[in-house]
Amino acid sequence: MADDAAQLYQALRARDARLWPKGNVSANRLGWLDVPRRLEEESRDLAAWASTIEQSTVILLGMGGSSLGPAVLEAVRGAGGAGPDGKRLVVCDTTHPVTVGALDFSDAFVLVSSKSGTTLEPNVLLAHAWAQLPDPSRYAVITDPGTPLAKLAAERGFARCFENPPDIGGRYSVLSYFGMVPAALMGYDVAALCGRALGAEPVEAVALGMTMGEEARAGRDKVTVVVPDAFAAFGLWVEQLIAESTGKQGTGCVPVPTTTPEEGADRHVVNVHPTDPYDVAEQFYRWELAVAICGHVLGIDPFDEPNVAESKKNTNDMLAALPLPEVDSAAPDSVMDWLEQTVRPGDYVSLQAYVPFGRDAQLEELRRTVRDGLGGMAVTVGYGPRFLHSTGQLHKGGPNTVVAVQIVSRTPGPAVEIPGHPYDFGTLIAAQAAGDHRSLVDHERRVVRVAVDELSEIS
Prior knowledge:
41% of the residues lie in helices and 15% in strands. The protein has 459 residues and is an alpha/beta fold. A five-stranded parallel beta sheet has the order 2-1-3-4-5, with helices on both faces. The chain has a four-stranded parallel beta sheet with strand order 10-9-11-12, with helices on both faces. A three-stranded parallel beta sheet has the order 7-6-8, covered by helices on one side. Helix 4 (68-75) links the parallel strand 1 (57-61) and strand 2 (88-92). Helix 1 crosses helix 10 (202-217) and helix 13 crosses helix 17. The longest helix has 20 residues, at 279-298. The radius of gyration is 21 Å and the shape is globular. The mean pLDDT is 96.
């Protein structure tokens, strides 16, 4: 395998599009291979700019690849006692009115991250932020060159517009401006992060990807990534990378991030052993290499996301035809009975929680309860609409082994208006949940929907 892995790495470094099926989009998606070197060279400039920001908190408005990497870097910064002591980062990648309404802009610098500059969630979050804080000196954006967001930043006179290399897809962007600008603001040594990333052993990473693909083809497609408790947030990022890259054309790897060992006939277990926050950068680059090659083994394009747009379209269709339609819901205490009657060997359960942030412990407890109640079956959990830009591609485009439990809030949150839009955040997140439910049904996925005030109602 070592010789094969070395050859595949050389082909990847050479940007050989023949690694993936004809028609793949790799021609404008491989900039992540070299961007750590560029950011390593720019690290002093980033640090100098970050030192000019006076506010103690940075609020990042983004979604998917624009937000998950920075969220990991914030969550692990104290791990091992070696983290930076910079500004606090608050990542808002939800449209739930409880979370959005609780954002405190009084001593905040706002960073708006969107590759396309047209993604709905960052745009409506920016509209909300601007209504609270109409001070352009306290805003910066990260986006591709020439996007509508870049133009808006110029028109309003924002403090900075970081134009990212356009040949980097969102989920591969953590070592570009999308991850390193927030890292600089948090006080990380960006040069050290990039150096640690470039220190990853590439042939080993390629071998990891080869094994993932081969195991998936042999029926062990639940990639169970085990990390220490202090690095649990790493699962957010690696989950998106694996799921959105491989879950298409009826195949894919199902990422199951966990902090405790999980075994099963359909499991491929990978243990990850970071000991300090800078180790995470090495894992970022390692897994990017691995997943690109996993796509080669599976015979799919790891750089496109053909099914992500479906739920977006369904959301827009529903918002264009308000009021929202009623969606049938089951009793929360019927979920386990339904699952026991529905799941089959080789399935996995996806808990999709359109609830306010801050429920991590309760969601993990629910995940483990469902896992144990189903004899150790693979169970994943994610906040909606965050997961729509992450595992959502796998749910619709991957194998039809997903059994989805959509969880929505029974009680509407506060009325948080969206300036310039005829609906508020509560209506938007309800439309996103209903739109994804329709998409799952259209793909003949098995799904049950429940409305709760507390996650403990589910049994």
